[in-house]
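QA checklist item 7 of 12: single-chain prediction sanity check.
[x] sequence parsed
[x] length recorded as 397
[x] structure emitted
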Amino acid sequence: MNRLSVRLVISHVLVALIGGAATFAVVRWLAPALFDESLRLGPAGGTGRGPGAGQGQGSGGVLRDQFAAAIDQALLIGAVVGVAAAAIFGVFAARRVIRSLGTVRAATRELAKGRYDLAVPEPKEAELAELAADVNQLGAALAQTETTRMRLLGEVAHELRTPLTVIDGYVEAMIDGVLPSSPENLEQISDETRRLRRLGEDLSSLSKAEEGRLGLQLASADVGALAVAAAERLRPQAVDAGVKLEVHSPAAGLIASVDADRIAQVVTNLVGNALGATEAGGTITVSARTEADQVLIEVADTGVGLAPDQLEKIFERFYRVSGSGTLRQAQGTEKPSQGTESSPDTSSLSLSKGQTGSGIGLTISRGIVRAHGGELTASSAGLGRGATFTLALPKAP
C-alpha cells in the first residue's frame, strides 16, 4: 500500500467506483419515477385515464419492475466495465509516472556514489521535469564542491610540502655537517616554520568564518581611523614595490560597532592583495565614507583588474587571479622589507609581496564582514583596468 504505483491504481479505481455509485444511485432513484410518469401520461401524451386504464395497472407494475431490474443490471455491468477501464488506465498512468521517478531515483543513487556528471533527462510532466532539473542542479553543485575539495587538498598539500622540504633539507644538512648551525641558517628554518603556522591560522580562520565561530568582540570604533592605520602599516611595502599608496583620512564620525582587530585584518588583506595585483608605477587608493545607514571602506587599485565572471569567484576558497603581481606573490620570489610586518592580529591574512598567499584571504575576509552584518563586494571595469573592493558595515545608531 505504500508504493506509489499501487496508490495511483487504487486512486483511479476509487474514482471509478465513486462515479459509478453516484451514477447508480441517481439513475435508480430517478428512472422509476420517470417511468411511472411516462405511463401516466400515456403514449399520446394524455393522462392515461381513458377506458381500460385500470386494466393496465397490473401490467404496468410488472413492466416497471422489469424496467428497474434492467436498469440495475445495465448499471452494474457499466460500473464493472468502468472500474476495469479505470484500473487499466491507472496501471498505464502509474507506469509512466513511476518510470520517470525511477529515472530520477537512479540518478540520485549515482550521485550518492559520486557520479556527479550524470544528467537526468527531463520527463514530459512539468512537475517531474522541475524535479529532474533540481537534481541536475544538485549534481552540478556537488561536482563543484568535490572539485573545490580536491583543489583544497592539493593546495594544502602543496603549501605544506614546500616549507617542510626546506626545513628537512636544512636540518639534514646541519646533521651531516654540510651547513653550520649558524643564526642565518636557523633563521631560514624559522621563516618556513612561521609560514606553516600562518597557513594553519588561515585554515583555522576559514573554518571559523564558515561555521560562524569567529567570536567577535564588538565595540564602537571609528572605522575610518581603523582603515587608515591598517593601510599605513603596508606603506613601506608599497614604497619597495614602486606603487603609490593614497590614503584619504575621512572626517570623524564613521562610527560602527565592530571588532577592531578583525576589521583591520580585512583592510590589511585587501591592501595586500592590491599590492600583489598592481605593477610598479600603479596606484592604490584607500578611502572611507558614509552612505545612508552604512559605513563604506573602499580599496581601489590600477592593477590587473577582474573579468565579470571573476567578481564572485575571487571569494571562493583557493581561487587566485592570474597576473604578474599575483604570480610574484604566490611564488614568493621577493623578500619582505625589514620592519614591514603587520601586527599579530593581521599578519595571518596579509598577502603582501614575499608572503605566499594561501588563496583563502578573501574568503575569510567576507566571512568576517558578514559576521558583522555587512558585506564585502568587488567591482572592476575589466581586465587590466584595476579593481575596487568595498567593505560595507552597518552604521552605529
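[x] summary fact logged: The two ends are 61 Å apart (CA to CA).
[ ] second reviewer sign-off
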